[in-house]
Design goal:
Rossmann fold; six-stranded parallel β-sheet; 42% helix; binds guanine
C-alpha cells in the first residue's frame, strides 16, 4: 500500500476560503472584522517568522490583526499590562502571546491572565478543562487542526485505536482529549513509555508530536493507519524533518501528512477558526 498524502496546505486553503466568505458576510451586514492581537516579546527569529505568518493569514481572510512587540528585557508587569489592555479591548476578539518567552517572564501566569473567552490558543486551563469535560469552548489550535485533517480523510474514526506520541500541554494532551471526545481509544506514549514500538504498532491513528527527527520507525506503522506528524525539526542542511520516518511509513499507511505542509498550515487555520468563533459569539 502507498499512502495518500494528507495535504495540509490544500485543506487549509480550502477552509480559509470559507472563513474569508464568512468575514465578508459579517462586514456586509455592518459588523466589524474579527480582530486578533499577537504579543511578541524579544527577537527570537523563529517566533518572528511564525508571527508574520499569522498576520499574513489574518490579512488573507479579511481579519484585523495587530502586533504588540515588547523588548527582550520586558518585565512581567509590562507584559501583564499589555495583556490586560487587550483583554479590555472591544475590537479585539483573540489575544495570543507568542511563546517561548524570555526567561525572566512567567509564561503560565500570562496564559492564565488572558481572558479565557479571548484565548484563541486554547491554552488557558479553563479551555483545556472544557475540552476535558466534553464541552469544548476554544480548542488548542494544533489538535483542532489535526482533527480537521482526520475529517478530510472521510474515514469514520469512532472506535479506532489512536496513539499519540508526546504528552506536552500544548499538543499531546489536548490531542488525546480531542480523540477521546471523537470516540477513539486513546494511548499517549511519552518519554517514560516502555514500549513505544508496540504502542505505535497498535495505532489505527498515529499522531506524533515530539520534535525528534526519525524517532518513529516507519516499519512500526500499522498497515492502513492514518499517520499525522506534528514534529518539525530543521537539520544542519536546513531541511525540515518530522518525527516519523516518512518513506517507510508511506509504504504502510492509508494516509500520511508531509513535513512540511501537513500539520503546520492546519495549526494556523485553527487560530483563524478560533478567532472567528469568538467574533461570532460576541454578536450573539
Ligand atoms: N509558538 C509556536 N507556536 C505557537 C502557538 O501556536 N501559539 C503561541 N502562543 N506560541 C507559539
Amino acid at each position: 500500500m502507498t499512502a495518500q498524502i494528507l495535504n495540509g496546505n490544500r485543506i487549509a486553503k480550502q477552509l480559509r476560503q470559507g472563513i474569508a466568505e464568512q468575514t465578508t458576510q459579517l462586514i456586509a451586514k455592518g459588523y466589524r472584522a474579527p480582530g486578533l492581537a499577537v504579543v511578541l516579546v524579544g527577537d527570537d527569529p523563529a517566533s518572528h517568522v511564525y508571527v508574520s505568518h499569522k498576520q499574513r493569514d489574518c490579512a488573507q481572510v479579511g481579519f484585523h490583526s495587530e502586533l504588540l512587540h515588547l523588548p527582550n528585557d520586558a518585565t512581567q508587569q509590562q507584559l501583564e499590562d499589555a495583556v490586560t489592555g487587550l483583554n479590555a479591548r472591544k475590537d479585539i476578539d483573540g489575544v495570543l502571546v507568542q511563546v517561548p518567552l524570555p526567561d525572566q517572564l512567567d509564561a503560565q501566569r500570562i496564559v492564565e491572565l488572558i481572558d479565557p473567552s479571548k484565548d484563541v490558543d486554547g491554552f488557558h486551563p479553563y479551555n483545556l478543562g472544557r475540552l476535558a469535560i466534553r464541552q469544548p469552548a476554544l480548542r488548542p489550535c494544533t489538535a483542532r487542526g489535526v482533527m480537521a485533517l482526520l475529517e478530510a480523510t472521510n474515514i469514520p474514526i469512532r472506535g479506532l485505536d489512536a496513539t499519540i506520541v508526546g504528552a506536552s500541554n500544548h499538543v499531546g494532551r489536548p490531542m488525546g482529549l480531542e480523540l477521546l471526545l471523537a470516540g477513539c481509544t486513546v494511548t499517549t506514549a511519552h518519554k517514560f513509555s516502555k514500549n513505544l514500538a508496540a504502542n505505535v504498532q497498535n495505532a489505527d491513528i498515529l499522531v506524533s508530536a515530539v520534535g525528534k527527527p526519525g524517532l518513529i520507525d516507519g516499519n512500526w506503522v500499522k498497515p492502513g493507519a492514518i499517520v499525522v506528524d506534528v514534529g518539525i525539526t530543521r537539520d544542519d542542511q536546513g531541511k525540515l524533518n518530522g518525527d516519523i520516518q516518512f518513506e517507510a511509513a508511506k509504504q504502510r499507511a492509508s494516509w500520511i501528512t508531509p513535513v512540511p505542509g501537513g500539520v503546520g498550515p492546519m495549526t494556523r487555520l485553527g487560530l483563524l477558526q478560533n478567532t472567528l468563533q469568538v467574533a461570532l459569539q460576541q454578536l450573539r
